Amino acid sequence: MQLLTIDDNFCGLDMNAPLGVSEMVRGLPIFTEDGDRMTSVIAYVYKNHSLAFVGTKSGKMKKIRVDGPTNSALEYEIVQVVDTGPILRDMAFSVDHEHLYIMSEKQLTRVPVESCGQYKTCSACLGSGDPHCGWCVLHNTCTRKERCERSSEPRRFASEMKQCVRLTVHPNNISVSQYNVLLVLETYNVPELSAGVNCTFEDLSEMDGLVVGNQIQCISPAAKEVPQIIMENGDHHIVQLQLKSKETGMTFASTSFVFYNCSVHNSCLSCVESPYRCHWCKYRHVCTHDPRSCSFQEGRVKLPEDCPQLLQADKILVPVEVIKPITLKAKNLPQPQSGQRGYECILNIQGNEQRVPALRFNSSSVQCQNTSYSYEGMEINSLPVELTVVWNGNFNIDNPAQNKVHLYKCGAMRDSCGLCLKADPDFECGWCEGQNQCTLKHHCPIPENQWLELSGTKGKCTNPRITDIIPVTGPREGGTKVTIRGENLGLEFRDIASHVKVAGVECKPLVEGYIPAEQIVCEMGEAKPSQHAGFVEICVAECKPEFMARSSQLYYFMTLTLSDLKPKRGPVSGGTQVTITGTNLNAGSNVVVTFGRQPCLFYRRSTKHIVCNTTASDDGFDKVKVSVRVDKAKIHQELQFEYMEDPTILRIEPEWSIISGNTPIAVWGTHLDLIQNPQIRAKHGGKEHVNICEVQNATEMTCQAPALAVDPNHQPELTERPEEFGFILDNVQSLLILNKTNFTYYPNPVFEAFNPSGILELKPGTPIILKGKNLIPPVTGGNAKLNYTVLIGEKPCVVTVSDVQLLCESPNLIGRHKVMARVGGLEFSPGMVYISPDSPLSLPAIVSIAVAGGLLIIFIVAVLIAYKRKSRESDLTLKRLQMQMDNLESRVALECKEAFAELQTDIHELTSDLDGAGIPFLDYRTYTMRVLFPGIEDHPVLRDLEVPGYRQERVEKGLKLFAQLINNKVFLLSFIRTLESQRSFSMRDRGNVASLIMTVLQSKLEYATDVLKQLLADLIDKNLESKNHPKLLLRRTESVAEKMLTNWFTFLLYKFLKECAGEPLFSLFCAIKQQMEKGPIDSITGEARYSLSEDKLIRQQIDYKTLVLSCVNPDNVNSPEIPVKILNCDTITQVKEKILDAIFKNVPCSHRPKAADMDLEWRQTSGARMILQDEDITTKIENDWKRLNTLAHYQVPDGSVVALVSKQVTAYNAVNNSTVSRTSASKYENMIRYTGSPDSLRSRTPMITPDLESGVKMWHLVKNHEHGDQKEGDRGSKMVSEIYLTRLLATKGTLQKFVDDLFETIFSTAHRGSALPLAIKYMFDFLDEQADKHNIHDPHVRHTWKSNCLPLRFWVNMIKNPQFVFDIHKNSITDACLSVVAQTFMDSCSTSEHRLGKDSPSNKLLYAKDIPSYKNWVERYYSDIGKMPAISDQDMNAYLAEQSRMHMNEFNTMSALSEIYSYVGKYSEEILGALDQDDQAGKQKLAYKLEQVITLMSIDS
User: Fold this and answer.
1) Residue 1172 has what DSSP assignment?
2) 75 near 81, Cβ under 8 Å?
3) CB–CB of 1317/1431 below 8 Å?
4) Region 1308-1326 average pLDDT
5) What is the dihedral sign for C-alpha 768, 771, 776, 777?
6) What is the pLDDT of residues 745-774, one digit of tens each?
7) Can you count the helices (H) and strands (E) in the chain?
8) Strands (E) located in 1246-1358
9) Under a CB-based contact definition with an 8 Å cutoff, are residues 1447 and 1004 in contact?
10) I want to staple 478 with a disulfide (CB 3.0 to 4.6 A). Which of 524, 712, 1244, 1415 is the partner?
């Protein structure tokens, strides 16, 4: 090489010479990527491995080993680094080369160089190809070598696949009845285990392993740990036997270990053929792993050939209703031992099991005794039946050959003599001429001369009959194959071989088409010109009258002609569908069309057309003659078809589409117009898609691109190439796959919705922007355009496209319109646009605005002058207001902060306090009484009947007679209807009668249900007749039926309440009570700081502190004192109640002492004891308001000791008469009791009546506003009361879980394994039946009926009154909250929408967000019930009978009857009149029977 000197001539020299060498340095590509373009690369060397990290256009990072195992690069991992967009060029390693910093447009990401931890097994780790990764054996993790503890010691770190740990175990299976077996494990590639090792059988057991060299000894699990193997899982259970290092506590090796269970095999063959060591005990009929457990030596079976089994038998034929034994060959049949039963055969005939005694002749033969068998129906002539041989009741003998018994009926499906004699000769069936049916010989009355059989001398059927011939026309030249169908058409071919004539022409029968007795196929000879039509005639065997038949149809000879064909040319490769026209072209049986020497494949024909598909021509391009042959007739007509050159494809444009296809493609080629329906195809991933093309002329066509078969859920972000791409042009094979095209598919465009609400608001003329990605395919050359159509409503708009958005000039529209974007085969709606109108102004409007503007300016000037004067005065006022506002604002903020803090208070506090002492359910009788007769403590139906002795016998006799009448449906219905029609029969009476009737019928619930259904059906009819809205049905309790329905559910849902719904209801009650008592409760008005009810919310700031008092245990003075949480603002009665709740929290309410009977004694540190009371001489009175004593009033400090003692009157506390009179005290006590009862809710706030003598009014926390003597100043210091409504939200949030739990339990069909009560399904189905009967298909009406029937009639009652179910006391604030929950419950069951506004009741606002989801629960619940299988009346009656039996003697029936009878006494004339008018009652003499009852019951008799 020559050196260049840099001198004056240097500039301008030609420098294109190699730099210092004569050989070019050539790059060798070791990794190429077509789909996801590379955008950045960085590399480093790790332990002699060159690693490259490549960023791509789609935001991925590829990790590539440049020195891959096959001398090329190995891409061993791909990581998605950024969600959208490419990775930028600059990448950098961290200082320690453990991380890589990667940038995209919007983020900087730190990515670890290796992620070995993702590989969970040694083989996955070492097979990943990542040179950083190796297997850290005892830690059982994939990691870098330097991160593996003691990795330099032998076999602790595996870096090659062959170093992975392997494990074998001997034995590798044991029986489930073997325990503590020694197992020896051979290990390979395991480091030294001096720290010890544990053997674990999955989660069954774990024990120490003993290490001996490279063996480890383990013991199999003990008896109680061995898995239960049930037959469903086969006869074995595979567990992983794992080795766990004591050094690291990690499992480092595992292998499969099998527990097998021989005893699941219940047949000998399956037992001994099991792959495990199973033996069969022949005499005990059990499979065992221990042959010693068989009772006899000779009873042990190990080989299949020694099993007792039936041998392969010839076909066992048994005619129906014929008594016959069945003999079976067998081997090794056991002889039953003493005490064992003998053999039986079991035949399973159409699902019915028939057992027949059997006889064991010896070990190789058994016979089912003489019996007859039968099966249903005449559509089966031979029925294969499963046969099982058993001994000793249920010991099966194996039947490996699956021998079946074939029961048969000669007469089934053999209605003619021919079909009968054609049957299998083994059946021994014959034709009985006297009865005209197929029978066995001995079933035919005179078999000698009436019974035909195949082998007999007279084995021929008479009276052949022809039912059908096909075809009925053919050419004269013959050759037509005529199919003749009928009865008795001979039994052998020779019977009919020579006697068939069609229209007088010989027709030669063909053996291959003959079906004995049923069908003859014959080939026609040539007809004479004089023959035109005729019948088909045959003789069977001989031409005597009884063996001859003639068809009813005629056969015609036709002349066939051709006139034209279309199209007249097609490609030389064939595939053209040609239609040839002419006359009579459907005659004959076989058509052959040829084009020159090539067949045209027959497709279909009619009278005037033959359609066929051309095949490829061997003679190249040419005009060829078309010939048509029908059978032996050649039709003479000069028709020609031209074979043309195949079409070619020269180019297609564009050579791309999107995954969904349907973009236009222009195709240029030659001879394209020859093709009838051209198609374009693309194949990908083994799936093919085609689309249509439309030919424009011989050289051009347009196609719609086919879609690419890609999983719609995993649309790729990359470009795809189809495996095959081409055209389906008739039969042209060369264009199915185009080799010279690079057709490419790009990702589908994706649009974003406008915004979460899906509505975009715009002014007219503003363009609409649709955002998305892949809107312009990234085609090389870059001029790709997709054809977007954007519709605003119905109108299209002009579209401008960029890669990430579409700009659409909005058409001249206003209002709300749906936006729809279409491209290719895709449609997407990003939402709606709302274009608000601009109002244009007219000239008069402009003038008037100008005038108004002028006047306004003058006015403003005047105002400014006045304002200047006024502003000085207002400045001062403003400052004053500002201070007040700031003050108020800070207090509001504080209040809201408190509310929020309370909302966050952990609900856990409530749940943990719900004690596990069980729920105090009331017994069935108390519960039903509280629902049926609310508020009546000691109802007569619980007591014995009280009658003076002299009348007792008569009254009892009368009531027994009356009971019979009540149990008569006609009387009971008439009685109820008559009562309901009386004006004086009040609502309360209706409820009372319904409850009394249900108590009487408690022991006859089936009858009660029947009556109830009848009454409800009547009520529905009446409701629909009176033109009431159907939704009002069952809304109010206005009839006996409605109250009876409530009572019916009350009886039948008690079990469901106890087992399922009671728990969440009780939890909700306790949670509400607890939460209310956390804050102050006004003992007079019932208002509380925490509430769900707006009416019961204290709306002012109450300062209070929580105290913990230690209460002496009244039952045991020496036991530790009980801490009780109390508020210092509580009245003494409230304190007593809280203490009683704490001490007796596990005692039902009715068993606790009452607060009124106890005194609260404060034991002070000085040793003094003081009785605290709500009112005493220390009570404060000011301005006629007397405040109840609280703990704060007595200044009781935190931690004080108190005790509850029985009531006593001390001098110190005696009420000073001059201050408060006795009357006022007693009145006050009444008032307290009044506020405590649930009924106090009915008047929202109890009226505080001033004491008449002194005019003193009581108060506790808030003075009642109705007494207008609150000073204005006071009112001003009160904060805005609405702010306190946040407390409702706080309380609601705290109680939310309990409300949800209750609603979820009630509205789920199977809750925690408890099934839906039958009563609910039954009643809902009844309502649906009624709706169907009355043609009510409105789902809202059906929904409302169900809601009124169950939630409104039953659940709401339980939610509002938990004291009906539990032994508890409910105070007024809890009652108010439960009412809100019950109202929410009803709203959830309603179908009507409640429009919320600022005037809506607070409880509706409070649960507004929850009600829609509760409504969904209800709808799902109703639909789930609807989908359940209907309950049969039989099942329901069984269930009702069971319920009646369980609660047979809960009520005194005589007393209840006596109560019901009082209504008979009151309306006896009307009832007797109604019975007289009723026909059925007349037949049964019910009026007379009632008169007897009245006579017996009357006092004066």
Assistant:
1) E
2) no
3) no
4) 81
5) negative
6) 888 888 888 888 888 888 887 888 888 888
7) 31, 76
8) 1257-1259, 1310-1311, 1314-1315
9) no
10) 524
